[in-house]
Amino acid sequence: MIQNSETLNIFRGGGQMGALMQSYDWESHPLGDPLYWPESLKNNIRLMLNSNFPMFIWWSKELYMFHNDAYLPALGKKHPKALGASARDMWSEIWDDIGGIVENILQRGEPFYAQDMLLYLERKGFAEETYWTFSYSPAFADSGEINGVFCACNEETSSVLTQRRLKTLKDVSDALAQVKTMEQLAETACSILSQNTYDLPFNLIYFCNSVGSAAILGGTSGNVADTLAPAVIDFTSADAVWPFAQILETRQPMYLRLSGAAAEVVSDDSVPDAVIWPIFKPSEDSIVGFYVSGISPRQEYDEDYKGFHSLLTGHIATSIASVKARQEILKRQEYLNEIFQQAPVGITMLRGSNYIVDIANPGVCEIWRVNQEETIGKPILEVVPEAKEQGFLALLDGVLHTGVPFVANEQPLVLERNGQQETVYLNFVYHPLRDEQGFVTGVIAVAIEITEQVKARKEIESINKELLATNADLDNFVYSASHDLKAPIHNIEGLVDELKEYLPEEVLASEEVQQLTSYINNSIERFKKVVVDLTKVAKIQREAGVEIAKLDLNSIIEEVCLDFKPDITAAEATVKTDLAADATIYFSAKNLRSIVYNLISNALKYTSPDRAPHIAIATESTPTHLGITVTDNGLGLRETDIDKIFTMFKRLHDHVEGSGIGLYIVKRIIENAGGTIEVKTELDKGTTFRVQLPK
Fold first, then answer.
1. Cα 328 from Cα 337, distance rounded (Å)
2. pLDDT tens readout for residues 542-595
3. How far apart are CA 501 and CA 513, in angstroms?
4. Are 169 and 311 within 8 A, CB to CB?
5. Could you identify which of 112, 218, 223, 562 might form a hypothetical disulfide with 136, taking C-beta atoms 3.0 to 4.6 angstroms apart as the criterion?
6. 452 by DSSP, 3-state: which?
């Protein structure tokens, strides 16, 4: 087609897609010659093509496709035929997921944002599991009407898969650290792996027998046929379901395609149904087992996927080595128990009233900071003379004379060695040593040095004190800021009013000026509201005490419900109460009302458009606490967002007014009073707040 300079300017600097659009036969396309396209479309295409961020435009009611170079990986094999095609046709496999969103934008102009949204795209010849963070917004024609969709997007598939796989690796590592037998190992590993069916459709773990002639099934999980999970696989059998014998020779992973009860080896590892990874003994070349895993049909078996399987196999191998080592230790435990010098704690036996050292293992000698040969046969006070002045002799006498054991935690002991004093901290037990007649003849001491732990705890306590001081400084800042901001806000408001006085009436009466002044006034009002909220926070955080009175919680609930009656009626909400007979408490009236007001207000604000609002309010009274529970059937939250709702200025739903400060204040009031607030919520099901206040 013949291109004029204006048409060329639309696609200039657009890289591969700019060149493709420039050479495209638009004359035969329903949109026609680009020269006559709307200016808004031209400008948006020019902006899109020169962006390094993935973007596309779907234009007109038919949603003809335009996109830049950064978006090409999303298209895969759909490129280059996607250009100028209808999005409904090109993305038919996901239209059930996004079609309603697109139509809503075209009809109502409501933008849409999604984070890590799962979409199964057929861009590589199969329905691929992908994740996207994107924003859909209306694209406008020159006349201002909506005539398409604009999208900025980013593929998050790699990040989502990585995080999911890292969680599986961590869960496996944590769980396998606790197992004690090979049976527990396989069952536990498969149980954890079964929680990630996206990456691991099924799992089999086999262990080589002691003579290396067969593999024994240890554990299974997932959707796998019984014929693919025989209890024993003989390495010499030609009909073996899994070709373990070949892996013993190649010592490499093997990729397979499954057909019924058979497994066919394939050379192309990008399309396997399953993979076998040999489990090597750590730091050795000997194979101790096999890990068989199903491959997701919705993912490529790429290097990241292989790395995930390799790490899983490594965790299993390490755990096998740990279990076998532990079992070996258990076999020798009886012998090792007799050789107590190898114990990981300090042990000593003190005889008679002079506490002669009969036995002292290396652990206790390390605590005393002496050599073992310097202790045997000597009185304890000769070995550790500092102990007498620090009360240890009196403790030993108490056990010797009463026969009652003594237990100490974090007991300090100051030792002087080489002219320097050192303080060690001990957890120890003094236990009476009895002869055959039951008489106490000495003391057995078992001790553990916890010096490093105590120092670490004290360091943490010191850090916590610094944090408390920092929090106090922050509270003072909030208090000062909330007051210092009032004057400039007032000045701005006055300057705006003064400006209105100087504007000519015809200017002041114009629609543009009216709209601008309305925006300014609204911004000032919002600014003032934030300052008021900051003042409330500062007041809550700085109050040393409040006026306390005996209050009836039920009466306050009824008063607040009466205040909200217009809102309840407008929302057609149902409010049911279940109030305890005795609901009195000594509390600040304004603070208790603030708690009730905020909880009921939230229940009314965040109602679901899909059902009539229902709010249940209940109180309960115990000898020590007074509780209030508010339950709604509204929008609810994701479980991961529960901790965020008490954060200052955090709003998880933006369709209602508010500064995101109410629940922060409520939590501070409750915690300052020694109470608790709990939240249980489920997305699109509703939320329950439960408050407990001490009487």
1. 14
2. 554 457 889 999 999 999 999 899 899 999 999 999 999 889 999 988 889 989
3. 13
4. yes
5. 112
6. helix
Q: Determine the Cα angle at 35 with ends 33 and 41, to 5°.
A: 95
pLDDT of residue 545: 47
In this structure, the strands spanning 214-222 and 232-234 are antiparallel
Distance CA 65, CA 85 (A): 6
**pLDDT at 658 exceeding the cut of 50:** no
pTM for this predicted structure: 0.49
Cis amide bond preceding 80, omega within 30: yes
Name the residue type at position 668: R
Q: How many CB atoms lie within 10 A of CB 107?
A: 10
3-class SS letters over 13-82: CCHHHHHHHHHCCHHHCCCCCHHHCCHHHHHHHHHHHCCCCCEEEEECCCCEEEECHHHHHHHHHHCCCC
And the tokens for 73? 């990986």
**How far is 281 from 319, CA to CA, in rounded Å?**
10
**Length of the chain in residues, anyone?**
695
**Between the CA of residue 24 and those of 55, 66, 87, 193, 458, what are the distances in Å?**
19, 12, 18, 50, 72
Runs of H (alpha helix) within 332-390: 333-338, 362-368, 380-383, 386-389
Query: Which tokens belong to 115?
Result: 């984070």
Parallel/antiparallel/unpaired status of strands 574-578 and 614-621: parallel
- Is the Cβ–Cβ distance between 345 and 446 less than 8 Å? yes
Tokens (6 digits) for 70: 């950064």
The structure tokens 């149904």 sit at 273
Predicted confidence (pLDDT) per residue in 500-538, tens digit: 777 788 877 788 878 878 878 777 776 676 666 556 555
Taking CA atoms, 1 is separated from 19, 21, 38, 82, 85, in Å, by 13, 11, 19, 20, 19
Distances (CA, A) of 602 to 104, 666, 671: 28, 12, 20
Q: How many angstroms from the chain centroid is the CA of residue 276?
A: 32
CB atoms within 10 A of CB 444: 18
Nearest to 119 by CA among 76, 169, 60, 182: 76
Rounded-to-integer distance, Cα 336 and Cα 355, Å: 26
Report strand pairing: 55-59 vs 64-67. Answer: antiparallel
Write down the pLDDT at residue 356: 95
d(CA 599, CA 688): 10
What are the backbone dihedrals phi and psi of residue 575, each rounded to the nearest 5 degrees, phi first? Answer: -120, 120
Query: How far, CA to CA in Å, does 17 sit from each of 55, 187, 348, 522, 635?
Result: 12, 53, 81, 44, 42
DSSP state of 377: T
Closest CA to 130 of 105, 99, 112, 153: 153
Residue pLDDT, tens place only, 43-69: 999 999 999 999 999 999 999 999 999
The helix/strand count (H/E) of the chain reads as 23, 24
